[in-house]
UniProtKB/TrEMBL annotation:
It comes from the Eukaryota. PANTHER family: PCDC2 PROGRAMMED CELL DEATH PROTEIN 2 -RELATED, PROGRAMMED CELL DEATH PROTEIN 2. This is Programmed cell death protein. Residues 161-264 form the Programmed cell death protein 2 C-terminal domain.
Length: 274
C-alpha cells in the first residue's frame, strides 16, 4: 500500500511566533519567505490578484532542500477558475541548505497577508487503511438496494463516473482531510473525474521532470472567506501540485515556480439505473 500522509486543519488560530516558524504548515496569513528579496519577486509574479491559500513545510533528503516550503496562491479576482494547467492557482517553491538557513533573513510579508482565510495550522497524519477506518462510506446513501427482486428483472449496476465513486470511497476514510501528500516519484492523484486528466506534465525550468507532490481537496473551500453562492467563486474538485523531482537549486536562489492542474468534479456522478 502506498504511503500517503493527510493534512487536517487544527483547531484555534496561530500567533505571531507560529507565523514565523518555518516548519509550521498552515493555511492563510502572510507568507513566510526565506529571503527578503523574495518579497519583490513574489509581488512581480502575483501582483495584488493572488492570495496565499496555504504554505507547506516539505523538506527533502538532500542538502540543498534541507529546509523547503511550497506556497500555493489562489486568484482573488471575480472570475471562475479554468480547468487544466490553471493560472488561477500559482505554486512556488523556496528552499535552503542547513548552512544557508543560518544566514537567511526570514521575512513575513505582511503586505501579502491573505484575505482568503485566517491562519490555521495544518496537522499531518498517515492515511488510515481501509480496515482501520471506522467511517462508513456514504457514496451510495441515496441509492436503494433491495435484497429481493419481486419482478425478477435482471439486475443492473448503477452507472456513472467510476472515478468519482472511487474518489468518494477513498476520501470517506478521513472526510476532514484537506490535502494528500505523496512520497513516491510514481504517485498519481486521487482523481474525482474520469475526464480532465493531464496527458503530460511540463518539466521544471532546470530540465528535470516534475512529479506529483500533493493534492488539495475541495474540503478546504468551506474554510475560505468567499461568497460560495457566486457562480465565479473559487471552486475545484482536485488541485494536483507537481514539483521538480530534483528539488533543484533554482529555489535556493529565489522562489521557483511550479505547476498546478485543476480538475473539476464529474457532472455525471453516480446514477441509479432506471
Amino acid at each position: 500500500m502506498e504511503d500517503i500522509d493527510l493534512g487536517f486543519l487544527a483547531e484555534g488560530s496561530l500567533n505571531q511566533s507560529d507565523l514565523l516558524d518555518v516548519e509550521c504548515s498552515r493555511i492563510g496569513g502572510p507568507p513566510l519567505l526565506l529571503r527578503s528579496k523574495d518579497v519583490t519577486s513574489l509581488k512581480e509574479k502575483c501582483g495584488s490578484n493572488m492570495d496565499l491559500l496555504l504554505q507547506m513545510y516539505a523538506p527533502k533528503n538532500n542538502d540543498g532542500s534541507f529546509h523547503r516550503i511550497i506556497y500555493v496562491f489562489a486568484s482573488n479576482e471575480d472570475k471562475a477558475l479554468e480547468e487544466g494547467w490553471t493560472n488561477g492557482i500559482r505554486v512556488f517553491r523556496g528552499q535552503a541548505s542547513e548552512s544557508e538557513f543560518e544566514n537567511l533573513d526570514l521575512t513575513l510579508d505582511d503586505n501579502a497577508k491573505s484575505k482568503l482565510c485566517d491562519p490555521r495550522e495544518i496537522e499531518v497524519d498517515s492515511e488510515p487503511s481501509n480496515e482501520a477506518s471506522e467511517i462508513e462510506p456514504k457514496v451510495l446513501e441515496n441509492l436503494t438496494v433491495e435484497t429481493e427482486n419481486p419482478t425478477n428483472e435482471p439486475y443492473t449496476k448503477p452507472t456513472g463516473d467510476t472515478s468519482f465513486l472511487k474518489f468518494q470511497k477513498r476520501i470517506s476514510r478521513a472526510p476532514d482531510q484537506i490535502l494528500r501528500y505523496y512520497h513516491s516519484d510514481s504517485s498519481e492523484p486521487l482523481w474525482c473525474n474520469k475526464d480532465g486528466i493531464p496527458t503530460n506534465v511540463p518539466n521544471c525550468s532546470c530540465g528535470a521532470k516534475r512529479i506529483l507532490e500533493t493534492q488539495i481537496l475541495s474540503t478546504l473551500l468551506t474554510e475560505l472567506n468567499i461568497d460560495h453562492s457566486s457562480e465565479n467563486a473559487l471552486d475545484w474538485g482536485v488541485l494536483a501540485i507537481y514539483t521538480c523531482s530534483e528539488s533543484c537549486d533554482l529555489a535556493n536562489k529565489g522562489i521557483a515556480e511550479e505547476v498546478c492542474w485543476l480538475q473539476k468534479f464529474s457532472e455525471q456522478g453516480i446514477e441509479a439505473p432506471e
